[in-house]
Amino acid sequence: PYQAVNQACQYSESKSVFTISSHVTIPERDENALLDAVANIGPVAVDIRADTMMSYQGGVYDDSTCDEQMNHGALAVGYGNENGADYWLVKNSWGTAWGENGYIKMSRNKNNQCAIASYASYPVV
Fold first, then answer.
1. Which of 10, 13, 37, 47 can bridge 70 by disulfide, Cβ–Cβ 3.0-4.6 Å?
2. Does residue 2 lie in a domain region?
3. DSSP string spanning 44-106?
4. Rounded Cα gap, residues 1 and 58, in angstroms
5. Domain housing 82
6. Does a structural domain hold residue 11?
7. Phi, psi values for residue 22, rounded to 5°
8. Would you state the pLDDT for residue 4?
9. What positions does the domain Peptidase C1A papain C-terminal occupy (predicted)?
């Protein structure tokens, strides 16, 4: 459990379930490559611009003023279309009381809105 003190790392290799051997970085700003990875590999870590979405409650988040100054890490876990609007399904770390049970539907195919595909990667295990 977490303790708010400086201490030695208690990592034990014998308790490891798997080892990450490397990682794959998605080509910068390439939403098609991100979609391919989410569809065929699984969840992809993404860096996004998040300060404009703090009050998000639901629906497809579309903010044309959201720039590419990344300031938050999240996990792209899926994609879809809602009422004609393409979106990324992104799992956030702000708890289930935020957004749609901790998730946000971020606009997809909107010129890399909120930097969704600017720096994305997944582990190779």
1. 47
2. no
3. EEEEE--GGGTT--SSEE--TT--S---EEEEEEEEEEETTEEEEEEE-SS-TTSTBTTEEEE
4. 33
5. 21-124
6. no
7. -170, -170
8. 87
9. 1-124
Quick one: how far is CA 72 from the chain centroid? 9
Q: What are phi and psi of 14, to 5 degrees?
A: -65, -20
CA distance 74 to 114: 12
User: The tokens of 120 are what?
Assistant: 């994305």
In a domain, 15, yes or no: no
Please give the tally of structural domains in the chain: 1
| C-alpha span between 86 and 109 (Å, rounded) | 7
Residue of 107, 99, 63, 103 lying closest to 82 (CA atoms):
107
Q: What's residue 1's pLDDT?
A: 65
Tokens 């195919």: give the residue: 109
- pLDDT tens track for 27-66: 999 999 999 999 999 999 999 999 989 999 999 999 999 9
